[in-house]
Design a protein that fits this description.
Length: 648
């Protein structure tokens, strides 16, 4: 018989310790003959990223020796950190950003010279050009003395580390891809102020015998077309993803160099926004068959696509979320990271002979009885201007408890980062942490999120701090009206851009009674003046050009409107954050404290943008729970480390 107890006070087996214990994150995937490789990020090792190899007999071995940390800093967000060919691993080391070569059974040896300063030359998104004994990659040079680093497509000699520029002139490059016979190179590029989900160009150039490029041809794209994932088929056709019909669908170049769709137009997405390198949601099982991920209103499925007929077949797998790692296809198998509401993101192997699936590595080894797990429900709710927005709602659930009949649960609204990103519906113990204690969670895909077509993504154009805030508020109000949440106990949290939405919702509106910002933006002008190259003009489209529209930046910066704050706030911040400097959180904390509102500030030494260390992940979860318990007045069923709250 369940125990009757107030929401928020339920005892849960899902602790912060169990969440980080043996937990990992995943980076890229590589297939080399029968061997499978993937990249793991390990909070228990301070966030160190390790290349793991799985052999056909099921043996799993760490390939990266300590103290190496496999992570590139190109575009700061990185990924595309490694590749493997013929048993040789090529990777970027985080410490010095040099390229390393590691043969099977051997130690890593540097390919490139040590730059001055360390980390001044960076590399990502590799393809091995074996006949010419070189790596082709994206190169980022911070040593030129220019105001911004210089990005190019370059070739790195494996013999002596010499760097040869192949393509230059654009602000950004990604996805250099050699044709199967090595005779052509494709790549994508874009320029300020566009982001890769705004406007991208797809180029192709012939490769001569000495490795130099001939005259390049623009084959697709432009300032208002987003192109992703150029990929050569086994028979030498160039495929890519484009949103030219509003949705990211698959296209290819025909024999005459003309663009043609691979399928009939679909109101579905075959791609994700290019935040990081190496992302791939499709690959070739043969010239006639593609294995791909397809997103339908926020939920992914794994499909098989006949390239001749355009027929798309859902393979009926249980996955509803495709992770950030590559989807790779070779030797009769597909390897990818995916999850579902019942399973955390895991490295999966699909046998193309019988469609059987093996889970090779789970993001979390924690085992939780389903009686403590909340299943997300996709909801659509009305928002401003007669439009509809999307979210996933997780109601409170704990098999051991029931709430008093006349009580409605507190609600935590989550605003994802990006803001051009989307929520995940794979099993997240960080969400179940809340629901198993009796707190509902609304994970909002506000206007501007991906997975719903370009028009939905473009709702945020010029409207950041307005549309996202409206949607988070209207989602919360919708659940209150449905009787599924207590309108007097509404909280909002988010990280990075989601932290900005959180702070804006608290500063400009009077709906939420508490909030938590994780490395969130409080001063938009400071962000525009002091951020890395990749995002340095991002705000042009989200707000307006800077400093020409400084008035808008001032108007929408929460730090300038703390007079509108009327509820408690807690802030978590990494002190080595290059993307959102710690000064933004510190200034916000001082302003809230000066107002006499309950507030807390938890800084983390050594953390950058996002928390990678187990102890800090634990502290942020438990600290936020403790904060809400004091603000909303519910007792905790277990002890957690207290947070010093000012003005309580």
């Amino acid at each position: 018989m369940p125990i009757t107890a107030p929401y928020g006070s339920w005892k849960s087996p899902i602790t912060s310790e169990s969440i980080v214990a043996e937990a990992v994150g995943f980076g890229g995937v590589a297939l080399d003959g029968p061997d499978i490789y993937w990249l793991e990020s390990r909070p228990s090792e301070g966030g160190r990223r390790v290349i793991v190899r799985r052999t056909p007999d099921g043996e799993t071995v760490d390939m990266t020796p300590r103290p190496f940390n496999v992570r590139t800093r190109v575009h700061e967000y990185g990924e595309g950190d490694f590749t493997v060919v013929d048993g040789v691993i090529y990777f970027t080391s985080f410490e010095d950003q040099r390229l390393y070569r590691q043969p099977m059974g051997g130690e890593p040896r540097p390919v490139t010279a040590a730059p001055d300063p360390a980390g001044g030359l960076r590399y990502a998104d590799f393809v091995v050009d074996s006949p010419r004994d070189r790596l082709v990659c994206v190169h980022e040079d911070h040593t030129t003395g220019e105001p911004e680093p210089v990005n190019t497509v370059a070739a790195v000699s494996l013999a002596d580390g010499a760097i040869t520029t192949l393509v230059s002139g654009s602000d950004f490059y990604a996805a250099p891809r050699l044709s199967p016979d090595g005779s052509q190179l494709a790549w994508i590029s874009w320029d300020h102020p566009n982001m890769p989900w705004d406007g991208v160009e797809l180029w192709v150039a012939p490769v001569s015998g000495d490795g130099s490029l001939g005259s390049a041809s623009l084959v697709a794209g432009g300032p208002a077309e987003s192109i992703l994932q150029p990929t050569w088929s086994p028979d030498g056709q160039l495929y890519f993803v484009s949103d030219r019909t509003n949705w990211w669908n698959l296209y290819r170049l025909d024999a005459h160099g003309q663009v043609e769709p691979v399928t009939a137009p679909l109101d579905k997405e075959f791609g994700k926004p290019h935040w990081v390198f190496g992302m791939a949601t499709y690959g070739f099982a043969s010239a006639d068959r593609i294995i791909c991920g397809v997103n339908d209103k926020g939920s992914w499925s794994i499909c098989s696509l006949d390239t001749g007929t355009g027929q798309l077949e859902d393979l009926g797998l249980s996955h509803t979320e495709l992770g950030r790692t590559d989807l790779k296809v070779a030797a009769g198998q597909t390897v990818f990271a995916a999850g579902s509401p019942a399973q955390p993101v895991s490295i999966q192997r699909l046998d193309l002979a019988d469609n059987s699936v093996d889970s090779l590595r789970r993001a979390s080894s924690a085992s939780v009885d389903v009686g403590y797990l909340s299943t997300p429900r996709a909801i659509e709710f009305p928002t401003e201007k007669g439009l509809t927005s999307h979210a996933f709602y997780y109601p409170p659930r704990n098999r051991d408890y029931a709430a008093p009949e006349d009580e409605r649960p507190p609600l935590l609204v989550k605003s994802h980062g990006g803001p051009t990103a989307a929520t995940s519906v794979s099993l997240s113990l960080s969400i179940q942490y809340w629901t198993s204690r009796g707190i509902g969670v609304l994970d909002v895909n506000y206007g501007g999120s991906t997975g719903y077509g370009r028009k939905y993504r473009d709702r945020l154009k010029g409207q950041w701090g307005i549309v996202d805030v409206d949607d988070c508020i209207n989602g919360a109000r919708y659940l209150v009206e449905q009787g599924e949440a207590d309108g007097s106990r509404l909280a909002i949290d988010g990280g990075s851009a989601g932290g900005y939405t959180t702070l804006a919702a608290l500063a400009f509106r009077d709906v939420f009674q508490a909030g938590a910002s994780h490395y969130g933006v409080s001063d938009l002008g400071a962000l525009a003046e002091d951020t890395h190259k990749f995002e340095s003009r991002y705000l042009d489209s989200l707000i307006g050009p800077y400093p020409e529209r400084k008035d808008l930046y001032d108007e929408r910066s929460p730090i300038n409107h703390t007079d509108g704050l009327s509820c408690p706030l807690i802030l978590f911040q990494g002190l080595e954050d290059r993307i959102v400097p710690a000064s933004q959180a510190e200034l916000m904390f001082e302003a809230v404290r000066a107002k006499g509102l309950p507030c807390a500030y938890i800084p983390f030494e050594g953390e950058q943008h996002g928390f990678r260390r187990a102890e800090n992940i634990r502290r942020s979860l438990d600290g936020e729970l403790y904060f809400y318990s004091r603000v909303f007045g519910f007792d905790l069923a277990e002890e957690v480390e207290p947070v010093e709250i000012e003005n309580l």
